[in-house]
Amino acid sequence: MPKLRKKLPLGKGKIGFMVSNYYPVAAGKLWEAITKGEHTQRFFVDKVEGDFTPALAPVHWELKKWGRHAQLPTVVRKDKKLEFNWADHKGKYLTTVTFSPKKKPKYIEMEIHERGWKQADLENAFENCSGWTMFLDYLKACVMHGIDLRTKNA
Question: Which of 15, 31, 60, 122 is 20 to 30 A off residue 89, Cα-Cα?
Fold first, then answer.
C-alpha cells in the first residue's frame, strides 16, 4: 500500500471480508494489544507512530515488506470497537477496517472486517484478508504465550 499523501475518497466498492479468532484473555489485555503501538509492534508491525485513542489522531504502521501506512481512525470505543480508514494498494481510495471484540462466557472473539474494495482490486482484497488472518494468529501467540511468530522468539 502506498503512503497516504493526499486526501483519498472513501471506497464505495461492494467487496469486503471478515476474519476472526478466539482469545481466552481479559478484554483489556486484548484491547491494549490492538490499540497501543508498543504492543502492536511486539507481534505485527516493525514500527508504530501513535496509539488508537478517542482523539482519533492518525496512527502510522511501518512494515518492512510494505512500507509506512497511515491509519485514519474514525471510531475508538474502548473494548467495543476500533475503526479506521486506510489506502488501498494502489493509493486511489480508502477502505474501512473495523475491529470488533465480542465478549463470550469464556473468551473474547475478535472480528476484523474490511470493506470498500472495488471488483478490479479483488486480488488485493484477498491479500489483505490473508494479512488480517495473520494479524489475529500473531496476536494470539503474543497475548497468550508471549511469542513473536515473525521471529519465533519468546
Answer: 31
